[in-house]
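Consider the record:
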Amino acid sequence: MYRPLSIIGLPVIAVLISFSLPSLAKDSPSPTQSLLIEAESFDDIGGWVIDQQSMDQMGSPYLMAHGLGRPVNDATKQINIEVGGKYRLWIRTRDWVAPWKTAVTKAAMKAVGTPGKFQLLIDGVPVPTVFGTQGAEWAWQDGGVVTLKKGKTPFALRDLTGFNGRCDAIILSTDQSFIPPNTVETLQPLRQKLLGITETPRDGGEYDLVVVGGGIAGICTAISAARKGCRVALIQNRPVLGGNNSSEVRVGLSGLIRQKPYTNLGNLVDEIDPVGHWALWDANK
């Protein structure tokens, strides 16, 4: 089967940044040591998945523990601690069922508990705070003060329920008074500054056709154009191609094809994966 001549994926911000913040203590002898760790930058995301569907609302991709009721494997990363000492820990997360706890509805239909809760392990030891338990909106949950040794330290996100725990980012700061900004308007400029992101987009090259969206429609468009000799860029903001017909969403191909008066319409779809077989685009690719 033919493939597009060029496929470009939207870049996922996935880095660890060490930075200094001005200390609030007037007599502080040195700058504050702080670490920003984007959850999607973990070396091994284990059973967690990178979710990008809410970037407009909360400003960044995040890790989600989608285990269908079974806790997923830990996401892990080695963090280089340049300066040992006591750090204030913050994790940006949310209690995703909180909106239904206060909804005006029958009591029996109100959500209870915190199905998205998870822990952070530092050097194999869980931080006492359980995260994902506070607030309906994305916000920084205070994890208290932790002591970190200088050098490489293993961090792990441990899912406790398998019911879609969410972790956006981790901040560690020796400034005990530092509270990270939270709104997209205030947080995004900070992220851009710390991650070295400029307002000028990276030049991705020249193409005859740029297709935005790697669902079945986008895939068919890119393949058709490539077969006609076009240089094609297929841009997708998900980790896999296929859209609804991918392992993420798991909706099989179906529908009527080759209908009059356009009897060739659907040939390419059927070539990709036979219609009605309920195969998934990325299952065997």
About this structure: Confidence is low (pLDDT under 50) at residues 1-29. Residues 258 and 267 are 7 Å apart (CA to CA). The radius of gyration is 23 Å.
